[in-house]
Amino acid sequence: MRRLPIVWGVVTGLAATAVAANSESEITRAYRKDADRIIKSVLSGCDAEKKLWQLCDDVGNRISGSAALDKACLWAVQTLRSDGQENVHLEPARIPQWVRGKESVTLLAPRPMPMAMLGLGFSVGTPPEGITAPVIVVNDHDELTRIGSAAKGKIVLFNHAMPAYSPEKGTGYGATVQYRYNGARWAAQQGAVGCLVRSVTARSLRSPHTGGMGYQDAAVKIPSAAISIEDAELLARFQKRGVATTVRMKMDAVDHGMVDGNNVVAELRGSTNPDEIVVISGHLDSWDVGQGAQDDGGGCVMAMETLNVLRKLGLRPRRTIRVVLWTAEEVGLYGAKAYARDHADELARHVAAIEADSGSFQPVNYSLDCADQKKKERAAEQMRDVLALCSPVAPLTLKVGFAAADVGQMKPGGVVVMGHNSDSSHYFDYHHTHADTVDKIDPDELKRNVAVMAVVAYTIADLPQRLGESPTP
C-alpha cells in the first residue's frame, strides 16, 4: 500500500499559492482559517488509529445480532463518553441474526480437494450429511436459462468474473454482485440443489468473499456459498475439458430471526441552532470474518474522531453535528431504516447526512443526492466550495447522484445525503474476507479521511444558511 507523506509546511504552502485570495469563494474565504487549523491538528496526530485498533483487535468482526456487535456498541458508547461527547446513547432497532456454523465445500471427483469457501449470509443450511451432486458451470444468468433443465439435480456454479478496476469505469461491483444475491434463487428455478458463486472480487490469493444473498419469493430455497476465483476457475477448466466434477456442500447455517440491536448516537451540540443537525456516520456491523476494518470500522472511527478533534479545538459550529454508528447495514440497512422511521418528525431539521462506507484509502470525492432537485443543485454548488477547503490533503471532486446506503434512507425526507468516498481501486481485494484487518489501513490515509470529514462537517454545520438553501436577501 502506498503511503503519502504528511508534510504540513509543504501542503499549506501549496494550498496558499494554488488559490489566490481574490479567486476564493465566499465559503472558502470564510472558512479557510478554521479548515487549515483542523487539517494541521489532525495530520499532526489524532486518536483515529488507536480507536481502530481497539475496535478491530479487541472486539473483532461484528455480524448483525452477535455478542460481538453488542460489545462494539458498548465500546463506542464508552469511547465517545470518554472523549467528552454530548448526548451519547443507544437507539434500539430490531435486527436479523444469522449464524454461519461449520461449513465446507469439498471437491470429490475427479480428485478429492477442500475448496476455499464462505457461506453467503442468510443462506439456508444443508442436511447434516451435506449435499453431494455434480457441478455445472455457467458464466451468467442467460447461460443458465439456455441450459434450463440440464441444471436439475446439480450444483450450479456462477463463474461470473468481476472486471478489474479502472478509473473510468470504476469497480464493476454493482453489475457482478447480482450473482451473489440472486444466484441461489435463479439456480433453484432450474431445479438445482445447491449454488456456488465465484467471489465478487477482481483479485484473489485463493480468498473467498462472503456477503448477503436473498431468496425473495423463491418456492424452493437451496444453500449458497462463495468460492475463491482460483477454485471457480478450476471447476470451469474441468468442464471445458469434459471432465465431470462432483462436490459436497456442508453448511450448518441457521437464521434465528429478529433480535434486539442498537445504533450508537453522540453529538457536538450546536452553539446557536442546536436543533438543526448534520449527521456523520459509518456502520458498526460487519460480516463474521476478518475484523471489519475497511468495511466499515474505518468509517465509524472517522466520524467518532471528527467530533473529538472539533471538541479539542474548541470549534463548536452553529448547528449540531451528530455521530450515528449504524447497526445491521450489511444485512439490510435495519439501523438506518429504524433511524429514519424514529426520527421522521425531525428529518426536516436534518441539514445533511454523510456516510463513510467505501474504505479508508486516500479520500477522492464526495457524492451528493437529495429528493428536491433545486435543493440538490444548490447544495452541489456549495459543496464544491466546501471541498476546496480540503485541498491541502486531497483534491476532492463532487459526484451528484447516489450517495450512500444508510444515509440514503433519509433522502425521502428531503435531507441532503452524501457519501464520503475513498480510492476504491483496492477496496474489493479485502471486502467481506478474512483479510479485512486493521493492518490493511494506512494510518496516514486514515488521518486524511478524518481531516476531510472534520472540515466538511464543521463547515456545513456552521454555514450562515442551511446547505442547499438560497442565501437570505
What layout of secondary structure does this protein have?
Blueprint (H helix, E strand, L loop, with lengths): L7 H11 L7 H19 L3 H12 L7 H16 L3 E14 L3 E7 L3 E3 L1 E3 L11 E8 L2 H7 L7 E4 L14 H17 L4 E5 L25 E4 L1 H12 L5 E6 L2 E15 L4 E11 L9 H21 L5 E8 L7 H9 L7 E7 L6 E7 L3 H16 L8 E4 L15 E7 L4 H4 L12 H20 L11
Parallel strand pairs: 5-6, 6-7, 7-8, 11-12, 11-13, 13-16, 14-15
Antiparallel strand pairs: 1-10, 2-3, 2-9, 4-8, 5-9, 10-12, 14-16
Descriptive notes:
This protein has twelve helices and 16 strands. The chain is an alpha/beta fold. It has two domains: 8-97 and 257-462, 3-Layer(aba) Sandwich (Aminopeptidase); 101-252, Glucose Oxidase, domain 1, CATH 3.50.30.30. Residues 1-21 have low confidence and may be disordered.
Per DSSP, the total helix count is: 12
- Note the overall shape: elongated
What is the CATH homologous superfamily assignment of the largest domain? Zn peptidases
Q: Looking across the biggest beta sheet, what order are the strands in?
A: 1-10-12-11-13-16-14-15
> What is the β-strand count?
16
CATH architecture of the largest domain: 3-Layer(aba) Sandwich
What fold name stands as the CATH topology of the largest domain?
Aminopeptidase
Contiguous low-pLDDT stretches (5 residues minimum) are 1-21
Overall CATH class of the largest domain: Alpha Beta
Share of helix, binned? 25-40%
Radius of gyration from the alpha-carbon trace, in angstroms: 24 Å
Tally of separate domains: 2
Q: Tell me, rounded to a whole number, the average pLDDT.
A: 94
Which structural class best describes the helix and strand composition? Answer: alpha/beta
Element-level helix/strand string: HHHHEEEEEHEHEEHEEEHEHEEHEEHH
Q: Please outline the major beta sheet.
A: 8 strands, mixed
Q: What is the strand content?
A: 15-25%
Determine the N-to-C terminus distance.
Answer: 50 Å
